[in-house]
Amino acid sequence: MRKILLLFPLSILIYSCAPKPYYVKPTEWKTPESIDSVIKSYSKDLTGWKFFIDPGHGGQDRRNIGIKKRVVEADVNLKVALYLRDFLTRAGAIVFMSREKDTTVSLQDRVRMATESGADIFISIHHNAQPGDPNTYYASTWYHAIEGDPRFHPCNRDIARYIQRDLAFALRISGSLASFDGTMSDYIVYPKQGFYVLRNATMPAVLVECTFFTNEYEERRLSIDEFNKIEAWGIFKGLAKYIMAGIPKIEILSDTILTTTKPTLILKVTDKSGIDKQSITIKVDSVMIPKDFITAVENKNFALILFTPNFNLTYGEHTIDVIVRNKNGNHSFPFKRKIYITNKKLTQP
Ligand SMILES: [Zn+2]
């Protein structure tokens, strides 16, 4: 009993001698008012945007535990997600969550809930592990597939880049050296498959692995509430800056039921920064239309794109698939539309 009493203060002394985890409060966090004014400054761009936040694991899935058993990944993911929801809603965005408590949610249900919510962007929040290598830690933001793969869409990488940059800065840690900018393809982990939630999400989606709970120092940072808030702040600022840079909005102006097998179709692309004409990529039934068959006419806030397939279309249904990048480097969201070629004369109603 006496021995325990002696050891107890000693253990406190040893613990308090350990170097204090280091983190930097964002410069905007001087007062509650200064935080609020930064959040409000993004509301012009974020108002009305719908985000689905998915805190990974939870409920029966609490197996990922820090190297010193100070944190459970599921709990840290939820804390960061709730802070992120707070920042986004205060900026006028609408936020849906896959879970708000320590509950079990299957991967299938996470994707289904996201689709049903009608959210514009899906963000899954996790923390990483490198079992057997306690020295490794970095921030990484993941997108689905790789360039050249039909499942890859560059808008996912755009979102990942913005989040990754501001998250890494907020946490004062680098991105992984495995990629140039810290963003990663989920094919690195599961070739040709990727992560379930990114593969099956029906909207642009990213997965954030903020840092590692298998590194002792990072685990201690993760156990501090204010640090979790800083993680959310990094993700929030990245998302806000991404939206501020604009996302080209595509519409089809021409009729989608046509009588000619070589139609000229008209698209309207709206973007405040203007579009990069060189970036226009149009596929009809997965066949790329050569640049010579595409004309873009720019107006003040929008551009008109006219294109004619360089081959005759058969009668029936066809799919057009368009990607455009704006002058800030952001790509349009996935745009696929059906057109129908009929040999019946169209009559006015
Ligand atoms: Zn995880």
From TrEMBL:
<dbReference type="InterPro" id="IPR013783">
    <property type="entry name" value="Ig-like_fold"/>
</dbReference>
<dbReference type="GO" id="GO:0030288">
    <property type="term" value="C:outer membrane-bounded periplasmic space"/>
</dbReference>
<keyword id="KW-0378">Hydrolase</keyword>
<dbReference type="InterPro" id="IPR002508">
    <property type="entry name" value="MurNAc-LAA_cat"/>
</dbReference>
<dbReference type="Pfam" id="PF01520">
    <property type="entry name" value="Amidase_3"/>
</dbReference>
<protein>
    <recommendedName>
        <fullName>N-acetylmuramoyl-L-alanine amidase</fullName>
        <ecNumber>3.5.1.28</ecNumber>
    </recommendedName>
</protein>
<dbReference type="InterPro" id="IPR050695">
    <property type="entry name" value="N-acetylmuramoyl_amidase_3"/>
</dbReference>
<dbReference type="GO" id="GO:0009253">
    <property type="term" value="P:peptidoglycan catabolic process"/>
</dbReference>
<feature type="domain" description="MurNAc-LAA">
    <location>
        <begin position="111"/>
        <end position="240"/>
    </location>
</feature>
<dbReference type="GO" id="GO:0008745">
    <property type="term" value="F:N-acetylmuramoyl-L-alanine amidase activity"/>
</dbReference>
